[in-house]
## 1
Amino acid sequence: MLILSALTTKPSILISLAVTSAITLMPASAQESPAQTASTAISENVSSFERAAVGNDSGHKSSTAAADDVKPFDPIEATQAWLDSVPRNQRERSNTYFEGGYWLILSDFVVVAAISVLLLTSRFSARLRDFSERVTKVRNVQVACYAIPYLLLVYALSFPLNLYENFFREHQYGMATQSFVPWFREQLLGLALTLAGGVLLVVVLYAVFRSAPRTWWIWGTVVMIIFWGTLVLIAPVYIEPLFNTYKPITDPKIRDPILAMARANEIPIKQVFEVDASRQTTRVSANVSGLLGTTRVALNDNLLEQCSLPEIRAVMAHEMGHYVLNHGAKLLTYLGIFILIGFALTRILFDAAINRWGEKWGVRGINDPAGLPLLALILSTLLFLATPFLNTVVRVTEREADVFGINTSREPDGMAKVALKLGVYRKLDPTPLEEFIFFDHPSGRARIRMAMDWKAANLPPGESHASESQPATHY
Ligand SMILES: [Zn+2]
């Protein structure tokens, strides 16, 4: 539901990396479910319990007796009731889909690693560098002459996995709406953006490698943060509109309650946007994208179509949480720390590898573009190993947005329903270890439990009397 969560191991996703992620929810078959009935029953219990409790002032004995008759709202039971409302076959299907994703993380890594090793050991990388040196004497242009064919080759060699992962598999699980031709057209557009952004980044990084061969890992981190920040800043204006149409929501029944939540939280937005995500997917989603002046809150047409107002409010309040809690800047900072550590380790590993195999591969050192596959190999290995930590950083941030969201929307049942809709593609009830390693958002169980705990706490709307809440005009 926020930028930066698509931390994948694929180098060809440079651009889409930073753009937006999204809380990709799915159309649910669990709309009106037993849990709802259960939860209605439970909330009725709660209100009779409340009535009993309120009666405490006057008739102490009788009210205590009344409270004994009704069962207090139990968040653990309520959470289980929501989870049990999902039919078994649906649960199994979403588990299969999500667990398949674990293997895809491994496959993506293995493919990138294999391509890198192939380019190095075959000395193809060295020959490509020699070619770029024959073309021009200008160092920056040499790097570009190396990087363009390199990026194209990596895209081509990883295309079969890309096709399976993002086209066939998505269709198999009923999440994709595009036929092959429009899908492929968007792939080419993404590739063009990756080439433009990727070549620029590689040229700048190699200029850093040449001028600071020992301390490049520090300056390289600065370059990465600036690159990433710029990408996030321009994405809503220049990148996202290439794939989808954004238009302001005009229906006051949806727009006004959302803008009211924004006003209540000092969020300076005048408009909420709708994006035609149904062009690509059936998933329900919303996101905050951009930075500083380009920040935009958008919800997708699937969400508008498939969710009730309480659910929409729950989702939008979560998105506002990202905004109010400055998650864009915070994630950029965390990412900077990860990159700094990653680059420091890369420096050690790169030099060690060159000492041992440099001559064999025809790679001269860090400032030689022929070493780009080695850089990709080391960085993707580190990224792969860091998966649980990156996911945890993002998941903790998402949990903060959930806490903000539930307190702002005050829609525990809406939040639970949305969590179930997410459960169509994200495993609802994982083990703690699974959640730690693979989840970049809290699991359905964790989210529903948070909502039910909030509901059980039964916060009063505000205890001061009307006369006290008016400012004093004189003394
Ligand atoms: Zn989020």
## 2
Amino acid sequence: MPAYAFFQKKFVTMPEAKVGVMTHALHYGTALFEGIRGNWNADKGEMYLFRLKEHYQRLHNGAKLLKISLDYSVDEMINLTVELVRKNGLKEDTYVRPLAYKSTEQMGVRLHNLDDDFLMFAIPWGRYLDTDSCKCGVSSWRRPADNSIPPQVKATGIYINNALAKTEAIENGYDEAIMLAPDGHVSEGSGENIFLVIDGKLHTPATYNNILVGITRDTVIQLAKNELGIETVERSIDRVELYMAQECFLTGTAAHLTAVGEVDRRKVGNGGIGPITKKLQALYTDIIKGKNPKYLGYCTPVYSA
Ligand SMILES: Cc1ncc(COP(=O)(O)O)c(C=O)c1O
């Protein structure tokens, strides 16, 4: 258990960081979160926080939808995150969870006339999908439409949808769910974006396919283009293409870049990790640990900052 959290505008010990039973966000899902990785580089004795700016820009964008007023700018949140990890002395792969939430202890479904708070804690966290090649099942649960609960925003309430899909997948013997959009096109995993490799190009669902526009997704698109000369096509993908692609992989802050070996009990490629997935995974693993000088701008060092 880490020692410190940031809560109600200051660093406190973890046991002090507690919300009341009437807290609005607890009842109505009126909160926004981010997931941020700290990647430990043992050779350099340094922790690198990955793409902090983009995570906090996404949080600020979501705050507009939920009418959450944030007391900290993107840069201030970045500094607080570095301080949090440093204070906790974490020296292994870490996950930082910032949460902006409706903190008023009052009942009544709404977004207006409520106070907001911003909290953060950091925990050691290794692999999320504990497999080299994951078995996925297409979920019976669909992603919500933009005008139901916008999936582009990481609002806590929407994650009931993801939890339904994840538990269904696990109970059916899979590692992860692949969710479809309301119109039946492929959308994303329960906590990851999805890519297919078809005839040497990457294909991934577009923003209009009800996805959370992932920061890992963006990183992988850039790496494919700049390092491997591989183009990514963002488009609507049919379910059947999942079974016919040469390779498939998932991307996310928690899951990093994980190969999909099977969808609905049908092998993708040879069922293992494909050559393009392998190359992208190696590139990604290096840049998040601050090992590739070209991408050091994405990495915020904690201990030498
Ligand atoms: C539903 C969903 N899709 C995609 C992602 C991947 O986004 P990112 O790469 O920004 O972590 C996540 C994780 O944050 C997620 O929860």
